[in-house]
Amino acid sequence: MKKINLLLGTLLATVALSHAVDSYSEIVGYNTSGVPAGKMTMVSFPFLKQEVYSGAFTSKSGAVLNSSGSSFDASLISAKNYAGEPLYFIEITSNSNATSGLIIDILSATSTTVTVSTGDAASLTGTETFKIRKYLTLGDVFGDNNSAGLKQGPSIAEADIVYTLVNGNWKQYFYYDDQVGFDPTQWADISQLGDAKDARIDPDQGILISRKTGSGDVSLRVAGTVKSTQAKIPVVAGMQIVTNPWPTPMTFAQLGLQTGNVATGLKQAPAVSEADVIYRLENGEWKQYFIYDDQVGFDPVQWSKLGDTADPSNTQIGVGEAILIKRVATQSFAWSPAKNF
Fold this sequence. Notes:
By secondary structure, the chain is mostly beta strands. The protein folds into two domains: 1-47 and 226-341, no CATH class; 50-134, no CATH class. It has five helices and 27 strands. It has helices at 2-11, 74-77, 97-100, 118-122, 138-142, and strands spanning 28-35, 40-43, 47-48, 53-56, 59-61, 64-66, 88-92, 103-105, 108-109, 113-115, 129-134, 136-137, 161-166, 169-176, 186-189, 200-201, 207-210, 218-226, 233-235, 238-243, 250-251, 277-282, 285-292, 302-305, 316-317, 322-327, 333-335. A hairpin with a 3-residue loop joins strand 9 (108-109) and strand 10. Mean pLDDT is 89; it is low at 1-24.
């Protein structure tokens, strides 16, 4: 393990990743993303928050998982955010799910048990090893009091906006400031009341930031641990912002999304209007990538960038970058981008 950590420390120097000092430590580090004013930027976060518990389940009863040797802080790991969403999750670290990267919300807990959804419980035997972590939140990324320095204002018309895509629906956040001092300044979700500083950013989720002109460039620095299990990102019909889950760049060729089968990869087609599309923000401008397939076998099947004849297969998706996938195929699949370090 020490040798692996040392190798990773060398490979990931560009993102200031440090290696663990003993054979039991997780690999920790941080990434810094620049977010310029007057543009839109998509970012993601390749580090998880450090575990609060680890152990092994000893049995399962319905949706209740027992870990008899544990002493959980039930009120902590059962916590919900302002929108009623669980703030803590279980990362499965053994059996086949260790390679598939299974992550499960904690609905409630006692000192020795956690309750999950019936659907999540069905995928478990009740004897897996696990880690419990907290989800990353808006406050973690931008500061509970907007220490990152986004432009604040009384509405999204005046303020910088943070967008997430949840189940195909856009959610908008901004740092509310009535500018007269009557109301408290706080993170706001335009669809709900309450301080939204604990709005979740899931491990497979990227965010879109729209900056106002003249609001000043900002830099986001997020620290955490490198995911040790395989990433598992659901790709579903519609639109979603997804991550590069690893703390190293990945090329389009390395994504593993060109499989020729819509049950395991992106839909290939002779035109962007018929294919699944990956959208990137490049210097604030949207660019479209798709897998070109003339479907008659005259031309090679390959990645294509709309408006550019060069093969973009070796184009890199950087550390901390996010991409938007527009899925026209109706089938969902679990995307597990391979580690390239």
